[in-house]
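Service request form, structural biology core

Requester: graduate student, group of Dr. S.
Request type: structure prediction, single chain
Budget code: on file
Notes: please return the result as structure tokens.

Sequence provided:
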Amino acid sequence: MRRLFTPAFDRPDDVPVGLARRMQLMAMERRSGTRRDRFARGGRADRRADASPRSAAPVGLEVLEGPSRLERVLLECAGIRSLGQLAAEQPARLTAELRRINHEMTLLRRSPLMGPVAGWIDEARLAAHRSDVNRR
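Core staff response, request fulfilled:
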């Protein structure tokens, strides 16, 4: 089994493996920072660039309401980091890929089913369509 993440801490023996992995993911999330953190650190010009609707940066998965935080991490492990990438996916292929990755890493107790994954894709397509309409 290939390891995607390097351990951020030594896991005590009494902590279950699943809990240790979730703690590791939360530590990784704290280190990377969020858009809100970048917004707070930057100057006025940076804030304007971040807040403008014509920003060149791709919109991240955090705007989706459907997937939980761990499901978003699972999507990122599958190589999907933006709404455009998610909107271009097919539900059956993505569900199989998420199931394979979750089987290797055991992030979630149950892999996401095709119904919710199709809902995330529809939500991403709708959000991508809205952003295209706003740019015109």
